[in-house]
Amino acid sequence: MKMLLHICCGVCAVALIKKFRSAGHEVTGYFTNPNIHPYQEFKKRMRAVEVLAEQDKIKVHYEKEYGLKDFLRAVVFKENERCSICYEIRLQKTAEFAKKHRFDAFTSTLTISPQQDQALIKSIGTEVAKKEGIEFIYEDATDLYAESKESAKKRSLYRQQYCGCIYSEYERYQNKG
Question: CA 57, 62, 32, 14: dihedral to nearest 10 degrees?
Answer without folding.
Answer: 10
